[in-house]
């Protein structure tokens, strides 16, 4: 199962959103100003770029990393990211010995504030069942080969707890700023269904 299967590229999503916004405005079902506020919210205040900033800061600020691992909700809120879907956050850190991945077996609970809208595959029945039954096999379909001596831990999001994975920092990035690092971090790596370039899983 690839993260592209059954999904759409960002350009396709943007085109759909613009088309929907135009129809809603033309039919006067919603004011254009309201749509602009909603779009601005998702472009700047929620989405994977927010989660990437959290992860990058954890890589560059040891005190923040400790806070994030011990009280993720408060640490994330301190950066201005939160809201209803981010009120009860738990962060799990990938290491050379442990690979974490996230699923919601009941529906599609997801940390919107830090990762934006959930991908279509995350909500699918095959992902939700196989993540629990055969996480290594599922990861392999995403192109992630996990060594036999690495433990795979699967975390089940609920309406009460949402998870975010801190992926391992790529080699050779020691001189990069948090902003530069954030640009390397993908949404899927924060779900645990991808590893970053330069990381050996």
Describe this entry's structure for a reader.
- By secondary structure, the chain is mainly alpha-helical.
- The chain has a single domain (46-191), classed as Nitrile Hydratase, Chain A (Alpha-Beta Complex).
- The chain has helices at 10-26, 32-45, 48-60, 62-70, 72-77, 112-115, 120-123, 125-133, 135-141, 178-182, 187-191; strands at 89-93, 98-103, 151-156, 162-166.
- A two-stranded parallel sheet has the order 1-4. It has a two-stranded parallel ribbon with strand order 2-3.
- Helix 8 (125-133) crosses helix 9 (135-141).
- The model is unreliable at 2-8 (pLDDT under 50).
CATH homologous superfamily label: Nitrile hydratase alpha /Thiocyanate hydrolase gamma
Total helical segments: 11
User: Could you report the average pLDDT, rounded to the nearest whole number?
Assistant: 86
Q: Biggest β-sheet, characterized?
A: 2 strands, parallel
CATH class: Alpha Beta
What proportion of the residues is helical, as a percent range? Answer: 40-55%
Arrangement of strands in the largest sheet: 1-4
CA radius of gyration is: 17 Å
Number of domains: 1
- Quote the distance from N terminus to C terminus: 18 Å
**DSSP, total strands:** 4
- Write down the CATH topology: Nitrile Hydratase, Chain A
Proportion in β-strands? 5-15%
């Amino acid at each position: 199962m690839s993260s592209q299967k059954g999904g759409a590229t960002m350009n396709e999503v943007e085109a759909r959103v613009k088309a929907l916004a135009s129809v809603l405005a033309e039919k006067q079902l919603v004011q254009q100003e309201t749509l602009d506020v909603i779009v601005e919210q998702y472009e700047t205040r929620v989405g994977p770029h927010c989660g990437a900033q959290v992860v990058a800061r954890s890589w560059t600020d040891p005190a923040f990393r400790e806070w994030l691992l011990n009280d993720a909700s408060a640490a994330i809120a301190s950066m201005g990211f939160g809201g209803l879907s981010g009120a009860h956050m738990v962060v799990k850190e990938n290491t050379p010995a442990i690979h974490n991945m996230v699923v919601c077996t009941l529906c599609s609970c997801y940390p919107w504030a830090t990762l934006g809208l959930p991908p279509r595959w995350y909500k699918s029945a095959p992902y939700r069942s196989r993540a629990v039954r055969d996480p290594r096999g599922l990861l392999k379909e995403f192109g992630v080969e996990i060594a036999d001596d690495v433990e795979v831990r699967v975390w089940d999001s609920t309406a009460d707890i949402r998870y975010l994975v801190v992926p391992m920092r790529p080699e050779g990035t020691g001189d990069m700023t948090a902003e530069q690092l954030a640009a390397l971090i993908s949404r899927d790596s924060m779900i645990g269904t991808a590893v970053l370039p330069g990381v050996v899983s």
